[in-house]
Amino acid sequence: MNKNLEISNEDIAAEIRRLHQFFIDWFNGVVPKTEEAFKSFRSATAADFSIIPPSGELIPIEALSQGLYNAHNQRPGLDIDVRKMTIQHKMGDFYLATYEEWQLEKGDSEWKGRVSSALLSKNASAPAGLMWHHVHETWLS
């Protein structure tokens, strides 16, 4: 991605896939449990990042980072499939994207899905030129 050009749907989709691949690798213990490996997540999330998972609880970046770091290799066999990624709105250098995230846990026979809205911004210091600011997830039935 050329960071001086407009962000495209493909750029957003690539970043969403990149971060979710990190989650797959982290939860499965494919990458080492080191600060260096964890930078793939932390360097892509803003200092004020927050997430609202399907439970409805607002989780700030500090709590999310600690929980995620401690969850290394705690979900072996987890697979994630991200679908239907699109930019819903563009506001200056900010983008509101939506996507579906489907997870399959080891031993499960059915995928569990959620729809997510993510606020990202163009940021040259982020790994793929996009910084995550907020995510809101809702279960799909």
Structure in words:
It is a single chain. With 141 residues, this protein is an alpha+beta fold. It has one domain: Nuclear Transport Factor 2, Chain: A. It is built from three helices and six strands, in the order H-H-E-E-H-E-E-E-E. It has a six-stranded mixed sheet. A hairpin with a 6-residue loop joins strand 1 (45-52) and strand 2 (59-60). It starts with 8 loop residues before the first helix and ends with a strand. The model has no long low-confidence stretch (mean pLDDT 94).
Count of structural domains: 1
Morphology call: globular
Instruction: Provide the residue-averaged pLDDT.
Output: 94
Structural class: alpha+beta
Radius of gyration: 15 Å
> Largest beta sheet, briefly?
6 strands, mixed
| Architecture per CATH nomenclature, i.e. the level-2 architecture | Roll
Return residue spans where pLDDT drops below 50 for at least 5 consecutive residues: none
Helicity range? 25-40%
Oligomerization: single chain
Residue fraction in strands? 35-45%
Alpha carbon gap, first and last residue: 35 Å
One letter per element, helices H and strands E, the order comes to: HHEEHEEEE
Please give the order of strands in the largest beta sheet: 2-1-6-5-4-3
Sum up the structure in keywords.
6 strands; globular; alpha+beta; 141 residues; single chain; 39% strand; Nuclear Transport Factor 2, Chain: A
